[in-house]
Structures are given as structure tokens and as C-alpha cells.
Amino acid sequence: MNASEMQGKRVVITGGGSGIGADMALAFARAGAEVVITGRRDAPLAATAAHHPSIHPAVVDVTDEAAMVALFEGLGEVDIVIANAGAAESGPLARTDLEQWQRLLDVNLTGVFLTLREGLRHLRDGGRLLAVASTAGLKGYAYVAPYCAAKHGVVGLVRALAQETAGRDLTVNALCPGFTDTPLLAASVETIVARTGQSAEQARAHFQSTNPAGRLIQPAEVTATALWLCGPHSGAINGQAISISGGET
Ligand SMILES: NC(=O)c1ccc[n+]([C@@H]2O[C@H](COP(=O)([O-])OP(=O)(O)OC[C@H]3O[C@@H](n4cnc5c(N)ncnc54)[C@H](OP(=O)(O)O)[C@@H]3O)[C@@H](O)[C@H]2O)c1
């Protein structure tokens, strides 16, 4: 994508202070867009915004309906909305209490619902809605049932919304990365080390081995897919759950 492809576009990326969201924010800003990034913590948002003058931080929790409504009302019309914020926790289902289940559905599914709903209400013609789901939205993984259920929900939400809006000048799609080299994955590695006594290398190797190519996905590979879906020639791609996983799904 050249430096002017996104000129004049207004982009919102939830969870844009770190990992995949931060990588996307920088790429869209470099392509000419004005990018608003959100998250709960100010420091990572400020650090990401410091990389480009067209990245603007806003502390907003995706699970807070009033705050999400206020964010989009404050922004006015937008062109691209990426529901990327998410969080993972692991544990056996038999030991998952209702509070943890609800917490993971709130951020990973309800947060996407609020982001896409508000995005849709403020979307210009030719707009693009994206949700960062996961291969966990396409297949099951052991010990992450609430996360998998939420991500499957995101894929269903995107498919339904694409049907509902098919006659309009917009698209809505889900990105489904496999295990990706981000702070979220680093935290999962730490959890495995703490719970099982495995080394960090062994834990990372476990995640790498799920990808037939034997490696982690890089944030830039997810970003490249997002740029393509938001570009001028992807208007026929709608309601898809696109796997970015080296062939895992
Ligand atoms: N890494 C992987 O292996 C992988 C694979 C497939 C899909 N994904 C998905 O990719 C997306 C991005 O994750 P990542 O891997 O880039 O991890 P990350 O660096 O931890 O990014 C997640 C971001 O979401 C934000 N966030 C979390 N809860 C939030 C809330 N309630 N409100 C607003 N923002 C919130 C976090 O910021 P704050 O904590 O400051 O709020 C953080 O910046 C997630 O949806 C994740 O499920 C990741």
C-alpha cells in the first residue's frame, strides 16, 4: 500500500496500544489515514501514538456501552472500524466460574458488538468494518472454552451483519489469526511456565507447532490482510472469516 492510499480516511482501532492493533495503527497512519486507537491503559496508547502524528489515543473500555457511544458521537463519521481489543485466559471448563466466563465474553464478544454497532451507525459510504477474531473462532482449543466461544460468536456476528447490510456500500469481515507474536501470546507463555514448570522455549514451541509452517504469525501479516480488506478492490469480500494461520485452519 502506498503512502496516499488511505488519505482522508478516518479509522478507529480498539485495543490499538499494543500487539496487532498497534501494528495496524502505524500501517494505516503511514498509508495516510487519521487513526484513533483505544484501550484501557493510557501508557501503551501514548507510546503507540508517539510513533506517528496521525495516531490519536483515547482511553475507552470496549465493554462500557456509554463510553463507546460517546467515543463515536465525538468522532462523527468514520471510514474504517476495526474491533481488535481482546483478552485471553485459560483453564479447564470445570473450574471456570461464571465471573470469568462473563469477563471473557464481555471483552471478546460484547466489546465487538458495541464496536461494530457504533461503527455501523457512523460509517460513511464505502466503509469497512473488521473484527479481529481468531482461529479460535473456527476450531476448538483445549482449556480456552470461553475465549473460543466468544471468538466463534464474533464470526457469527460478522456473518449475520454482512447479510443484513449486503445491499449497502460497506463490507464487514473477520480476521482469524493463528497464534501471533504479541504481548497476549507472551502472557500465555508465562501462564504455561507458571502452571506446568515448562520452560518458556517449550511453551513457545507448543504454540508454534499448531501452525503447519512451524512458526508464529507476525502482527504485520494480520495488518497486511486488514489493509487489503480496507483497500479499493475488496468490495466483493463480505461476511468472510479469513484465516491467517499458515494453513492451520
Ligand atoms: N496473539 C495471538 O496469538 C492472537 C491470535 C488470534 C487472535 N488474537 C486476537 O487479536 C486481538 C489483539 O490481541 P493481541 O494479540 O495484539 O494482544 P494484546 O497486545 O494484548 O492486545 C490486546 C489489546 O486489547 C486491549 N484491551 C483489552 N481489554 C480491553 C477492553 N476491555 N477495552 C479496551 N481495550 C481492551 C488491550 O489494552 P488495555 O489492556 O490497555 O485495555 C490491548 O492493547 C485480540 O482480539 C486477540 O484475541 C490474538
How does this structure look, described?
- The chain is of the alpha/beta class and 249 residues long.
- The chain has two domains: 10-178 and 219-242, NAD(P)-binding Rossmann-like Domain (Rossmann fold); 179-216, no CATH class.
- It is built from eight helices and seven strands, in the order βαβαβαβαβαβαααβ.
- It has helices at 19-30, 42-49, 65-75, 98-121, 145-164, 183-196, 200-209, 219-229, and strands at 10-14, 34-39, 55-59, 78-83, 123-132, 170-177, 241-244.
- The chain has a seven-stranded parallel sheet with strand order 3-2-1-4-5-6-7, sandwiched between helices.
- β2, α2 and β3 form a beta-alpha-beta unit.
- The model has no long low-confidence stretch (mean pLDDT 97).
- The structure holds NADP nicotinamide-adenine-dinucleotide phosphate (NAP).
- Keywords: Oxidoreductase.
- One of its GO terms (molecular function) is oxidoreductase activity, acting on the CH-OH group of donors, NAD or NADP as acceptor.
- Belongs to the short-chain dehydrogenases/reductases (SDR) family.
